[in-house]
Amino acid sequence: MPVSAKICGLSTTATLDAALASGASHVGFVFFPPSPRNMSFDQAAALAARVPDHVARVGVFVDPDDQTIARAAQAARLSAIQLHRTAPDRVAHLRRSAGLETWAAIAIKVRGDLDQAREYVGAADRLLFDAKTPADAALPGGMGVRFDWSLMNGFRPPLPWALSGGLDAANVAEAVERTGATLVDTSSGVEDAPGVKSVDKIAAFLQSVRQL
């Protein structure tokens, strides 16, 4: 089955255009002030205007309030919202209020973390299995941390899903082979520094995905 890719945390026209030119199926815009990838609604609107309709525009949030979701959705013409550190009932509420495809991120470190997936049935449209960051980390993702992909052996996700956490051009093929992911998501894996995307690394990652 073909594998598609989301490039997350884009913030410049050059890197957005690189993602589009190399075949990204999804582009991600971060709305979380502590993140080095955070962007204003105006910045997001300017980038979103460059994205063709066949590419999904995903807003990334950490337990957001309703107003933040509404403003971002309008400014960036979002196709989907991706929610981190957000309880299932809150995810369900935001899904109803936004009326958009809704992703729930699940942070994985041990096999038992996968059990959370069942809690999002009926609340989210898609799960994002991401690596759990250290307890004292300010960010829930985008730190280059990966989880042990063997934890997913024999696991059957109850919803459509995507794989994230430390993916880059060198390891994405192994990640897909070991997990069966058909949608992969990268951010720090295509950066030269936190929040500084590399046009060349974006192209290399998407080339690796195309070869799967």
UniProtKB/TrEMBL annotation:
Instruction: Write down the chemical reaction(s) this protein catalyses.
Output: N-(5-phospho-beta-D-ribosyl)anthranilate = 1-(2-carboxyphenylamino)-1-deoxy-D-ribulose 5-phosphate
Where does this protein have coiled-coil stretches? none
Q: What class of enzyme is it?
A: isomerase
Task: Cite the SUPFAM superfamilies for this sequence.
Answer: Ribulose-phoshate binding barrel
A Pfam family this protein belongs to? PRAI
Keyword vocabulary terms for this entry: Amino-acid biosynthesis, Aromatic amino acid biosynthesis, Isomerase, Tryptophan biosynthesis
Q: Report the domain of life of the source organism.
A: Bacteria
CDD domains reported for this sequence = PRAI (cd00405)
Query: HAMAP family this protein is in?
Result: PRAI
Family of the protein in this entry: Belongs to the TrpF family.
Protein name (record):
N-(5'-phosphoribosyl)anthranilate isomerase
